[in-house]
Structures are given as structure tokens and as C-alpha cells.
Amino acid sequence: MPPKAKPVLALTGAIAGEGRAAIEQHLSTDWDIRSWMTGDGDDALVSLLAEADAVVPGVDTLFVGAFFAGLKASPRLRLLQIPFAGTDWLTPELLPARAIAAGCSGHEVTMAEYTLAAMLEWQIRLRVMDADFRTGSWTYSGSSKAPIAYHGEIWKKTVGIVGYGGIGIEIAKRARAFSMRTMGLKRSKAPCPPELDWLGASADDPNALDTLLRDSDFVVLACDLNDATRGLIGPEQFAAMKDTAVLINIARGEVVQEEAFYTALKSRDIAGAVIDTWYLYPARGLPPGEKPDDPSPAHFPFLELDNVIVTPHCSAHSHEADDRRMISIAANLDRYARGEQPDRVMVKGADAAA
Questions:
Q1: Within a 13 Å sphere around the CA of 102, how many CA atoms are in the beta-carbon half?
Q2: What is the model's pLDDT at position 287?
Q3: The D-isomer specific 2-hydroxyacid dehydrogenase NAD-binding domain covers which part of the protein (predicted)?
């Protein structure tokens, strides 16, 4: 009897170059690994997808029209393994029958550290003190009794985390180390874990979100973008927040209603925001370093406000997060090869359960 053929793993786009060695290093099962780079052409991509049992796409592949057509038409595909966090673009209609799409882990620590840095920076204002001191000013000297010279603390402040999953857990554990009060909100009711002081469930308590918003000094959005969370934060929610509160969005821009967000910041209905995820991404699909003609990340001029800290969707961007993601991806491929259910299944094709 001839030996059983190895399952075919297709790595497409950037991950075929930068991630292949790491995935191979962490795999414990045997695969026929094949690669496609953007210069190889659409026909080669479609041919590879037709032979693949599993696909790990680089983010650049998502801008190649032939990818989705080839994915949907693939007769063998059973696993689309996503190597990054954002999957709000993913729908069952993109997958062939019997295929599933799974996410990965590894970015939780990185995003938690970003969030703690954001809260600390908001209170301590290192950027402000550094810029002022470089001008020769001693305005913020520790011997000054002027009110402006004093910075704040996150000690005993309350952080409320909307979307209490892996990222939220890592945020709460770190916040507890700073003696913060921690609150979390998830969809379904669950026991309150030791790293939280309060855990609400939106499906069981329609007032749970308002409770978190009213009590929080920092509101962190760490939820998925879906039908239930799109536009979740709007005028009523901003009205429920403290006027000293800060909103930190590491989820997706569309979780917050854009005009209401801008209005709340401009009118100082809330104290400010740290924004990492946006409404427009004009640089996507461009070569690295190339600037778009209009680089605006939103329809409103958030970047002109003086009560925001803004970053270009990079809260999960570290070498260490990439390494952990490759370990997570390899573990899921191993599960598939052993006939087991992969972790973090997010979307199923029409007949995936058959």
C-alpha cells in the first residue's frame, strides 16, 4: 500500500517569506508546504489553492482578488488559518463547503502592555514633560507647587474592559498589579475570575454596559466587531461615562459611532481617548513606507484634537507577538493533521459540520 499523502499547506503572500521557517520549526506533524508570493501571478495562486488542504494567508494576500475566488472554489480546502487578529471581513460565503476558518493567539500580551502604557501615559504625561523640558523649561519640576506641575496616577483607578476575552484577561492581570479596580463585560454570564472585581454579561443584563461605563475611569474596547458590537458606543453611552473618563479603542473603529465619538471628544463630554483602530485605512495595499494621497484615518479631524493619543493600528505589533502567533498557528495545523478540531474556530462553510 502506498504511503498516505501528506496534507498540503499553502502559505500565501508575506507570511510565505517571513513566517515559513517559524511555522516549520514548531510543527510536529508532516506537511507538504508550498508557497505563493505576490509576484507569482494569479494563475499560480488559484492552482495552489485548488490543491491545498490548509491555507495560511499573509495580510497582503487579502488585496489579491484571485485569492478569494480561488479559496471559494478549492475542492480540498478544510482549514483557513488566519495569522492575525482582525477577522471582521470574514464571512461563511468566502469559504468552500466543509471548510472552517480559525484564528490564532499570541497578541494578547502585546495589546495588554499597550493598554497599560496608554493609561500610564495619560496620567503621567511623559511626552508633555519631555517636550517642555527640552525647551529649557522647568515647569514640571518636582519642586514646583503649580497645579500643572503635578501628574496623576493609575493607582485605585477603575478600568472597564468591554469584550472580556484573552486580551482583557491580560489587561486585568496587569492592571491589578497597579492596584487598579478591574471590571469586565462579556456576552454570556460566567463566574467572576480572580483578576476582576466585577464581571457583567450583556446577554443577561441589558444594563451591564451602562454599569461599566458609569464606574470606569478608563474604558477599554477589546471586543470583536460584529452585528452586536458595530456602533455599540454612541451618544447614550458617552453620556453615561464620567466626564473625566478616557476611552481606549484597541478593538475596531466601527465599534464606536464615529460622529458621536468626535463630538464627545471635541465638547469634552469625556476627558479624552487613546485611539489605535480607525474608520479609514488609506495605506492598506500600498508598498511599505509609501504615503497615501490622503492619509486621514477618519471622516472627522480627530488628529486635530488635543485630548487624544493616536497610533496607526499597532497595539499588537511586536516581534514577540509574531513569534507567539507562529506557535499558535503551528499548533492548530497539528490539530488538523491529527484529525482534531482546531482551536479558535470563528467561521464555518456551509457544510463544515457535515
A1: 27
A2: 78
A3: 117-315
